[in-house]
Amino acid sequence: MFKRFPPKITTSEALTAHQLAGLQWTVQHAFDYSSFYREHLTAAGITPGDITCLDDLRRLPFTTAADLAADYPFALRAAPFDDLVRIHASSGTTGKRKVLCYTRKDIADWQDMFARCYELAGLTCQDRVQIAVGYGLWTAGIGFQQACEHFGALAVPVGPGNLELQTAFLIDLQSTVFCCTASMGLLLAEEVQRRGLRDKLNLKKIILGAERSSAAMLDTMRHCLGIDEIYDITGLTELYGPGAGLSCREDNGIHYWADYYILEVLNPLTLKPVAPGEIGEMVFTTLCKEGAPLIRYRSRDLTRLLEGPCPCGCMLPRHDRILGRSDDVVIFRGVNIYPGQIDEVLRQIPGIGSEYQLLLDHTPDGRDAMLVRVERSRNGGGPPDELLTRLIIGGIKHTMLVSCNVELLQPGTLPRSEGKTKRVFDRRCFE
Ligand code: ZN
């Protein structure tokens, strides 16, 4: 399956040994070269020699975005400046940017990881890869481009936006792969449809990064652009950047590069591992990152691990799509509710639009009550109101084991925003 950028291991036993060696190296390296990690490890009573098996990972202290902000800008730096060749930065939750340092080897490792994504997506050196994501401090543009060149395909670095130029280059240069956010892919699809350009394109694949996509968006892209293959690429700046994993071609979740990092999925409230298949927060520990290693870095992103071998033949492990942020978790009648689960339920039901709200309240007798407000789809169609309501209630009961009420709304009723839309309103009183 992989000829040029294969995993560093071929069996799960070898993966365990590889991860242990990487964990031991990382803890020693962080202890030796980072004052931040040395202090944190020492405060937790850990010395590098204490790591003798993979379970010892659980003894290590967590690292958070707040740690990066507290020690801005070079918080996790674990290499002398002489060895650093680049920084990238992303916006931080507390207003401070997160700045991450890279050595030459980090850049090389990142290219290898990302090139493996291109290989898994079935690209060849004949492909022309039009890159329509941001350049600059972000990891996106340069990440897609350097890996494309490293892989040996032809990079067409257009950058974000500029639909006119994107369309012109898709036609003139006959680009075969388009890398973008889901919103951009949708805009392009609608533009190509509106101008009747589909037959002039040579587009084969889309690689989506950075943003969650809905089934409706993907359908529009497939239909308007005449393509079959759409891949999601994962990654975050703290973990090199995009290229940390790619969605399976058989749509069985996302294969992630476990030979470069350990992924834990933990209950965000107890910080203990969730049961197999349950949703939890993604926590990352890198195995060979020099400039800014991660030790149990809490990403706040939610997903679940997918068990067992994948029919596509790729032996690297899998996790589900990103299902939201742990900051958004609410407890309802003793059950953890992740808004992403509501997305998951709604996207499987026909006749529903893209917007919804979740209202939590107390009934007069003090019980938790949940109301899901859902817009009907703009295209019309779908089942009549009564059946649609029953499908939503049944889907939520089945997936999240809770009962709710449903209010159906006309398309366009709920507020939109260009940034992050607030969808959960918790009006319960806890005094
Ligand atoms: Zn697969």
Descriptive terms for the model:
single chain; 431 residues; alpha/beta; GMP Synthetase, Chain A, domain 3; nine-stranded mixed β-sheet; 20 strands; globular; binds zinc ion
How would you characterize this protein structure?
There is one protein chain. The chain is of the alpha/beta class and 431 residues long. The chain has 2 domains: 327 residues, Rossmann fold (3-Layer(aba) Sandwich); 98 residues, ANL, C-terminal domain (GMP Synthetase, Chain A, domain 3), CATH 3.30.300.30. 29% of the residues lie in helices and 24% in strands. The chain contains 10 helices and 20 strands. The strands form 5 sheets. A 9-stranded mixed beta sheet has the order 4-3-5-6-7-8-9-14-13, sandwiched between helices. Strands 19-18-17-20 form a 4-stranded mixed beta sheet, covered by helices on one side. The longest helix has 22 residues. The mean pLDDT is 91. Zinc ion binds next to loops.
Topology:
Elements lengths: L11 H22 L1 H9 L21 H6 L13 E7 L7 E6 H17 L7 E4 L8 H12 L2 E3 L6 H10 L4 E4 L1 H14 L9 E4 L6 H11 L3 E8 L4 E7 L6 E3 L4 E6 L13 E7 L10 E7 L1 E2 L11 E2 L10 E3 L2 E3 L1 H9 L4 E11 L5 E9 L8 H16 L4 E5 L14 E3 L5
Parallel strand pairs: 3-4, 3-5, 5-6, 6-7, 17-20, 18-19
Antiparallel strand pairs: 1-2, 7-8, 8-9, 9-14, 10-11, 11-12, 13-14, 15-16, 17-18
Helix pairs in contact: 1-2, 4-5, 7-8, 9-10
Bound molecules: zinc ion.
Zinc ion binds next to loops.
